[in-house]
Records
---
Amino acid sequence: MKNLDEPAFPQAMDDGTGCKPSVGMSLRDWFAGQALSAMLAQPNQPWVPCRATADEAYQIANWMIDARTEVKG
């Protein structure tokens, strides 16, 4: 089962005060941002900054998480 909320840059969560600091963006958000950057950097592709492009970036991120889960077993 994939975990879409897995942190991209996990850190120890015990700061000694009982408070839990934020872990930042999820791994899915990180993957989507990387996919979006690559998509928009392609000069010969019809990508434009819009909702459909963002949705495609998240779909790519989901596939990356699926592939990562399959490899990790």
---
Amino acid sequence: MTLQTHDRHGFARKIAVDSTDLTIRNIRSDRTTLEGGLLPVSRKVRDQLINAAYKHSSEEFALMLDLGFRTGMRIQTICGLTLNAARYGLCR
């Protein structure tokens, strides 16, 4: 079966279709492990890690670790924060 569609420039295109079944397959995953066996950090361990970072590492690293644990932000997002973003209220 073929479907005719138009691209953004108005040209007609034909697409060969094998099936009209558009259902999303429910593929079961192994729910016994999380991300290769990693487990969430408890609040007690989290607080110990943050306190150790403030005592034994740079202030910047400790703040990044604190921000990541308390907000759930990923390291790429934390590293991308700028002073300009803070000045303009983009990271509150």
---
Amino acid sequence: MFDVRKDVPIPVATREGFSKPSKYPFATMEVSDMFFVPNAKKSFSSLASAAGKRLGRKFSTRAVTDDGVSGIGCWRIS
């Protein structure tokens, strides 16, 4: 059986595992900056969207070819 406790404060939520730097430069980009991810899949756009929500910014992704290598270009748009 479990004891019910009254007036126990909830601890502050922490985001464990997010202390390492990001693999991608979302946080350091300025509006109109772009980076290229070679051989990336379309699912990269969801990662860019999640980063935008976390940082309060907007990113746009497009399939592009750079020096003959297919991948995804990611632009910061706001």
---
Amino acid sequence: MNESGVYPVDRKVLVKPETFEEKTKGGIVIPDSARERDNMAHIKATIVACGVNAFEYIEKAKQRPQIGQKAAIAKFSGYLITGADGKSYRLINDEDVVAMLDGDWDIRYKKEGS
């Protein structure tokens, strides 16, 4: 159920990214600016809502991402939005959903050669 009050149009998708903790495991407080940057860079999210034309280019309906599924999304994509429920969301293009995730994956951005 979409409690955010945000309803994407056309080919937009509303996702709820996983967020980073306010403290490290060792108890160090992470500054708001660093946490916001890390949250925007995070690439694992749950699909909350889709516009009417989202994923229409995928011919087989069974392969289209569905609400509630975990997804890998493009780094730094879309807009940060605070929903009516006070939670943080990102409004992204459907093409920024790059993979669907089955299970609990640890996904991190990694540069080539690193």
